Amino acid sequence: MAQCPRMPETAKSRFPPSIKFLAWNEAAERFSYYGMASILVLHMVRNLGFAENEAVTAYQVFTGAVYLMPIFGALLADRYWGRYNTILWLSLGYVAGHAVLAVWESAWGLLVGLSLISIGAGGLKPCASAFAGDQIPAEDKGLLARLYDLYYWMINLGSTVSTIVIPLLLDHVSPRVAFGVPGVAMAAALLVFWLGRGRYVHVPPARVAPPAEDGGPGRGSAAGAVLRILAVFAPVIVFWALFFQYGSSWTLQAERMDRHVFGFQIAAGNVQTLDAAMVLTFIPVFAVWVFPALERRGVKVTALRKMTVGMFVTVLSFVAAAAVESALQGGAALHVAWQIPQYVFLVIGEVLVSVTALEFAFSQAPKHLRSVVMGLWYVTISVGSLLTALVAWLNRFQGVAYYAFFAAMMLAAAFVFAAVARWYRPVEAPPAAEAAA
């Protein structure tokens, strides 16, 4: 199983055997999703006759739907089906959605296919990360952060390969093949998940909500815990309003740039590979060198501190994008390599905010509401994407002003997050006996 570099492990600290099935399932599913997403905007503009702002709006609405549906999948898992069954059965809708995109090339086909994928994602997104966390024994709590490093690394392994391959299929073969290959990958993801069925730890659904731990709405209650987590999540909405624009506005920006590399012209959709490729590099760099070096110097590296720094760094990604846009509007013929700085800042923000938030959400959530809390995390992504869709649809900002608007909004959100992070007091993990109950 591929994983990011780590210090040698003791026998006690090795991942359970079930993790390899979940890790490769995640890589294949992310290949399918990001491969399909990498060509959506270009397909809508080139083949379906969408205007650029309409394509960006549609892309962000779809992204919003993908990350809104997990709250319903989470409720289904935590109350009725359990995480395993929710992942298994809703993945079938995911496979069907890819098939529709491949065979029905029209605006209606796009709507039906993307709707099915959104429903399928509603089962996978909140449950897959929580289900992976369920596999870690209570006595090996230290493995949790490493698990989500690995989990996120596998996500980006799948997305790196797909954003190289799928845009080339769109440009040089056909839309049908370009959308069909992600469908095959999603079917493979489902198969890998099913093959591990005999090795998983299953946490049964809580068919009725357990009573509050302290009998009231205070610090110890489940409702209070969820509300405090939501306070941390809220400012991150703006991070997501910026983040997925590498697949929409940044891709359209790349379309207007010189993309010749070593005598070969890369597809505009290929540029998105920078995000995933950099994440594959930066996760082990931060985990193996940066964070330990800070700890040795007496700097306590906490989840909320990492996320705070990530929020501020993300501002710089859109400052850099605005600078590139200014040069393009001024008539400069820029090579696409000028987009690298904006990707570097975005990926640093991603590693510090998004990767860390998975660990934070799982560790802080009441046990019986872990899928729900993961679902609420994905709701922040949905709202952020819909915010971007609204801005694109209103079409009030163009060019440099568009990127400057998002940079300013991100800066304000970073200051709000810093204040919330200072207020929040992390909940300590329960004793091993309680966690295993």
From TrEMBL:
GO terms for cellular component: membrane. It is a multi-pass membrane protein. The keyword Cell membrane does not apply. Its main location: membrane. Belongs to the major facilitator superfamily. Proton-dependent oligopeptide transporter (POT/PTR) (TC 2.A.17) family. One of its GO terms (molecular function) is transmembrane transporter activity. This is Amino acid/peptide transporter. It is found in: Membrane. InterPro entries: MFS_trans_sf (IPR036259), POT_fam (IPR000109). It comes from Anaeromyxobacter dehalogenans (strain ATCC BAA-258 / DSM 21875 / 2CP-1). SUPFAM superfamilies: MFS general substrate transporter (SSF103473). The chain crosses the membrane at residues 57-77, 84-104, 110-131, 151-170, 176-195, 225-246, 266-291, 303-323, 343-362, 374-394, 400-421. Keywords: Membrane, Transmembrane, Transmembrane helix. The keyword Ribonucleoprotein does not apply.
